[in-house]
Structures are given as structure tokens and as C-alpha cells.
DNA sequence: AACAGTTTGGAAACCGGTCTACAAATCTTG
DNA sequence: CAAGATTTGTAGACCGGTTTCCAAACTGTT
């Protein structure tokens, strides 16, 4: 039965199994899906044949009528440890279920919609996404086609679930903490965005809360923006520090904050001169060499919760939308431990 | 034309497009695939209808006869920045091509094969994988079904391509460097594995080279193993350091090395007491707060190269296998800068 | 005008599953 | 033991694309 070399082997189809077992295709299908109407003997015979032929159904064919048993996760950025935490949480929740998780990395800019379409084209049974740049109207339409959970969306939706942390509270915790440490000149480094959706994104809300918190205490905001890249965050951070006008920086997230720490070190300074606070509480933030004060939004938990919500839709058939909000917590560490220095 | 609310919208099919444009399904298919035999007027008319209906072909249906335009990437672990670098390299190379990349995270242990099967069931057009635990025979069979590039495999394969760095050289660079710095008691922390494939895995080869390099200079190896997790690496590293018997640790990769740095700091020690060298040169290694001496294996480049090899198979139709080896380079940083301390 | 060669568009088979509808076989029950 | 109910297995339609094959229309040539 040796195959002619060079020629690709054809994997067995359900027909092959049916023929080998001397039954119908429909019977094999029933056995595979654990459907009703199969005698123990038939099940046994078919299962043995399946094992013998090493048969596995092709997902594409299955998709055309049934389900794909695939859950798609879109993340805007591969390099940010926060997202890998979310995925780890999601992944753990999926273990043991028949669902396979696939991750589609974003393409940068406002191209998140393309990735979501691409997942939808692959007919995943449901999807989880973090796409701040995509419009709500567009998502509502997509949500009507496919079960969906969006992370980091503060608007309540109709056709899909939303899951976020209380970014306003989180930012307030961070900024208040710096003020309590005696800081008066606190800058904010955030990700630039010319989208009109900006005010409702996590970074937009943190930005707003930063300004509100400062102004409530009579302090002046100093806002700097950067692109979603290490190099850009480094440059923006370095400029802020070099200006000598500030004693603390509240950075939009931990990944960027760590670049600010890099700039600080490259300028031969420490967090005693300029305190740094991030957002997300990625694992690295607790590393003693980094020891970054930050706000935890429980990424692993969010990932797990997102899967729960999604499975409620896929398996449970829920169609009304839910909006869950996680309460963030401040994590005080060395990067904001020193008292605020005096500016000369 | 409003849809009854609550009912899921059905997305348009190729038939809908054909009907709306007043042509046949086959014609629409030809237009989409840019196939031969379509007049400019027909192309125009169909394309307009496609745009109007916002039609996008379903990948599953397309897969049944044609291609999926999907490339699957299996990675053993989400948390390791080295893998995200590889994927970033792959992703950048795919930009602008019609192929979409999907990532399937491993399930830990030796369950890599399951993920590969799962990708194969989804009929990706090709896949890239990093599965040290899977047997070569099994991979050869899979390679006959689907274009495949394996990373970190030192064996030459027949049905798929292999791409690796010279781990023996890399480990030798690392260990020699420590010896030149005056270290005599150099430990190695590596990932445990009871697989028989161990000697041919990257970590196995680094381990072998470590021993060979030490013994060539008449030094005694001290090997410690840990699981593929931060907590385990931390514990193993801490134990090695606390033993007081060594002045340097060559760690299997950067992600684990950074956990060793954590243990070191928690013990109120610095790399002046125990030098640390990693492997991979992840972006974080160059952070001044970390400044980890390591060996670069050019992850981004490897990711890009893997895609090139894969596309040669998918698009170019190459069937003979290739085996590419990248030459690693030492990156000297602060974690090994101090002269070796004397052991009391 | 007749003919061969080339373009163009469509009908229908096909991919590999799921699912519906139904017939045959078996089991209950009076 | 007949009638009805239930269980078991199958044929065939179906999903939405791709691909093959063929007929019709058009082109150019003599």
C-alpha cells in the first residue's frame, strides 16, 4: 500500500470510513457527533474503523452545515504582554472543551476591521476582539452574524457583549496615588489616535480621568502622545523627562511605561527623579528590576470571563447582550515609592 | 428590506451576487479569482455588484476545492517574547499577500501534535511550527499532506523544511564568554524533558555544548532543570544561587533568565555576585534595567525566513526540502560584565 | 461566405461533511 | 398475534464555493 513518492497522500474522508466499515456516511456522521440513533455495535464498529484509518473530519466541510468548533481571538498587538495574559486566561478556560482557539494578530493602524472580517470569513463559532478603532455600528452588524465579545469597549452594545475594566477609576487611582506622594507636575503619556471613537476607548477614558483628577486638585495636565510602538514611546518618554518640567509620568499602559523606564535609565536617572506609573499590571511589572507601580485590570481573569460570556452565547444560546465591568486595583511598587522631588 | 429583529442576518453568497448581477456563479467565481476568460465589462459589472452587496467569499466553501489562503503558526508558549518576535517577522513578510496568518497556541506538555492536527483539520495552506516534542516520523507524514516549515529542528527532513540557529555554536559562545570573564563554576539551567528527542532539541543541544565547552577546559558542569514556567524557573534559579557553589548561570533562554534575575534580586544579590547569560536576545534583554547578556538568534529574521520558505512551497511549488541554519551572535551586556568573584 | 481559431459565459459535477425524511426492523402493548 | 410506537440505518438534498467542459459568439483569413 506504499504511496508513490512525491505524490501527496490523500487523507481519508468520511466516505472512506463508511466504505471500510460497511455502513453509510450518515451513520459515520452520527457516531462522530455523538448523535442519537446509533446502536452500540454500530458505534463500536465505526469507532474502530476511524481509529484504524486515523480519520479526522475536515473542519471546512463540517462548517458548511454545522459548526467549526473554533473560536477566533483578535489582538491588536503581539508584543504587549497584557494581551498574552488575556489569551492565557481564555486558553485555560477553553481547555477540555471541543473548541480550538486561534489568534489573529492585528495589522496595526485602523485595520482591525479587516482581521475581524477575516475571522468571520473563516466562520469561527464566535470571536473575542480588542479593536478600539472599529466603529460600533459596524460591530453591531457583525455581531448579528456571529457571537462576539468585545474587550475594552465602554459602550453597551445590542448584538454583542462588552467587557472592560473601569478605566476612569483605574486612572484616578494611579493619578491620585502620585498626588498623594507629593507630585505636582504629573505628565500623561498616551497613545495618539485621530479616531472620533477616541473618547470611548480605554486610553481615551484614562486620558480624560487623568485630566479630571488633576484639575480637581488645581494641577495642570501635561499630555504627550506616541504611536503604538516601543520606539515611539521611548522617544516621547525621553522628551518628557528631558524637559525637566515634570516629576512623574502616568503612562497609558505597562508596555509603554517600561520604555519610559528605559529612557530614564539611558538618561542616567532613576524613578527617584521621575516617578513612573503604568496600567495593566503585566507580569513583568512585578519584576524587582522593573518594579513598576501600575493598575491591575486582571487580564487573565478578563480572558477567562470573555470565554464564559462567549460560550453562553454559542452553547447556551443567549442572545441578549451583557456588559461586564471589572474593578481595577492599584499596585504600588518602587517606581513611585520615592517622595516627589522639588523642581528647580 | 428591513430584517426582522432578533433573527441573524444571512450574509450574501456567491449565488446572490450572480443573481443580482444577472450572470452565472461561475462567472462571479472567475472574477474573484482573477481567472482567465472574463471580459472587462463582465468584470466591471460583477465587481460593482460585489461592492454593493458587500460580498466576501466564505473561506470554508472555498477550501473544499481550492485554497484557504491561511497560514497556521503553532507556538508552544504565548508568554515567551522570543516567539512573538518570530511571529512579528512572519507577519511582516505576509503583509500585502493574500494570506492571513492564524496562530494556534500550544497546550503545554507534549500536546503540540494535537495543535498541528487541528491546524491541518482546518486545511491551512501551510504551517510553521515550533514543536520540539513531536516525533520526526509523525511530522514526515504530516509534511506529505501539507507544506510545512519547522523551527528549531536540527534534523534534516524529507517532506518539510527545517530552520534553526546553530545552537551548539550559540551555547559555546555564551559559555566561553563566561570562562573568559574568569568564571570557573558555571551552572546551566535548562528545561527538563524526558523525551527521547531531547538530544536533538535546541535546549538539548545547548545543554550538550555547555557540557562539552566546560569539559574541554577542565571545568565541572552543574546542571539544573525546570519546567517551562516562570515559577519553576524562578525556584530552580533561586536554589542554584542559594547553593553558593557557582558564580555564573547560563540559562536555556531569556524568558527563564529573566526569572533568574528576579530570584537574584529577591536574594538581595546582583549579577556582580552571580553572572547570568540567556539565549534568544528578546527585546527586553537590552533594557537597561535588565541588560542581559545573551545570544541572538535573530527571531524576527527567522520568522520572515520561515514564511519565505513556506511560500516557496505553496506558491512556487517546491517539493524538495531545505534546511537553513542561522548563525547566532553573542550580545554582551551588564549581566556578565563584572569579573568573576572568588568563592569562599 | 465558409471556415478555423480564439474568447466568453454558463451548466453541472465536485469537495466532504451535516441534516432531513423515510423505510425497515425491533419492541410494546392489548 | 396484530397494531402501534420506537429504534436504527440510509438515501439524498444541501452548504457555497471551484473547476471542468462545452456551446455560443466573435475574430480573422481566404
Describe the structure.
The structure is a homodimer of 344-residue chains. Helices cover 41% and strands 15% of the residues of chain A. Mean pLDDT of chain A is 94; it is low at 1-7. The radius of gyration of chain A is 26 Å and the shape is elongated. The longest helix of chain A has 16 residues, at 299-314. Chain A has helices spanning 14-21, 25-32, 40-53, 59-65, 81-94, 112-121, 136-145, 167-180, 202-216, 230-242, 254-266, 299-314; strands spanning 70-75, 100-105, 126-129, 148-151, 161-165, 186-191, 222-226, 248-251, 275-277, 294-296, 323-326, 329-331. Chain A is α/β, with parallel strands linked by helices and 344 residues long. In chain A, the strands form three sheets. Chain A has a six-stranded parallel beta sheet, with helices on both faces. Chain A has twelve helices and twelve strands. Chain A folds into three domains: 14-57, lambda repressor-like DNA-binding domains (434 Repressor (Amino-terminal Domain), Orthogonal Bundle), CATH 1.10.260; 66-165 and 298-327, Rossmann fold (3-Layer(aba) Sandwich), CATH 3.40.50; 167-297 and 330-336, Rossmann fold (3-Layer(aba) Sandwich). At the A-B interface, helix 4, helix 5, strand 2, helix 6 and helix 7 of A face helix 4, helix 5, strand 2, helix 6 and helix 7 of B.
Amino acid at each position: 500500500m506504499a504511496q508513490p513518492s512525491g505524490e501527496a497522500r490523500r487523507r481519508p474522508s468520511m466516505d472512506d470510513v463508511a466504505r471500510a466499515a460497511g455502513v453509510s456516511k450518515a451513520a459515520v456522521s452520527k457516531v462522530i457527533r455523538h448523535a442519537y440513533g446509533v446502536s452500540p455495535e454500530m458505534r463500536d464498529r465505526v469507532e474502530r474503523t476511524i481509529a484504524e484509518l486515523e480519520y479526522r473530519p475536515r473542519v471546512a466541510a463540517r462548517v458548511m452545515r454545522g459548526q467549526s468548533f473554533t473560536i477566533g481571538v483578535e489582538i491588536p498587538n503581539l508584543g504587549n504582554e497584557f494581551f498574552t495574559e488575556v489569551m492565557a486566561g481564555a486558553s485555560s478556560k477553553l481547555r477540555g472543551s471541543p473548541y480550538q482557539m486561534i489568534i489573529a494578530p492585528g495589522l496595526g493602524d485602523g485595520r482591525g476591521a479587516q482581521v475581524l472580517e477575516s475571522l468571520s470569513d473563516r466562520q469561527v463559532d464566535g470571536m473575542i476582539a480588542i479593536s478600539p478603532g472599529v466603529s460600533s455600528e459596524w460591530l453591531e452588524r457583525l455581531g448579528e452574524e456571529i457571537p462576539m465579545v468585545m474587550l475594552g469597549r465602554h459602550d453597551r452594545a445590542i448584538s454583542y457583549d462588552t467587557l472592560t475594566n473601569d478605566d476612569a477609576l483605574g486612572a484616578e487611582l494611579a493619578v491620585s496615588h502620585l498626588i498623594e506622594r507629593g507630585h505636582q507636575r504629573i505628565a500623561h503619556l498616551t497613545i495618539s489616535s485621530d479616531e472620533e471613537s477616541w473618547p470611548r476607548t480605554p486610553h481615551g477614558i484614562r486620558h480624560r480621568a487623568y485630566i479630571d483628577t488633576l484639575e480637581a486638585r488645581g494641577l495642570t495636565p501635561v499630555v504627550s502622545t506616541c504611536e503604538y510602538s516601543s520606539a515611539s514611546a521611548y522617544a516621547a518618554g525621553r522628551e518628557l523627562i528631558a524637559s525637566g518640567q515634570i516629576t512623574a509620568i502616568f503612562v497609558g499602559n505597562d508596555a509603554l511605561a517600561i520604555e519610559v523606564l528605559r529612557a530614564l535609565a539611558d538618561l542616567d536617572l532613576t524613578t527617584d527623579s521621575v516617578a513612573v506609573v503604568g496600567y495593566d499590571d503585566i507580569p513583568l511589572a512585578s519584576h524587582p528590576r522593573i518594579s513598576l507601580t501600575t493598575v491591575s485590570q486582571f487580564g487573565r481573569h478578563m480572558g477567562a470571563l470573555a470565554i464564559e460570556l462567549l460560550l453562553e452565547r454559542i452553547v447556551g444560546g443567549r442572545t441578549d447582550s451583557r456588559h461586564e465591568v471589572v474593578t481595577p486595583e492599584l499596585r504600588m511598587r518602587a517606581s513611585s515609592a520615592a517622595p516627589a522631588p522639588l523642581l528647580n
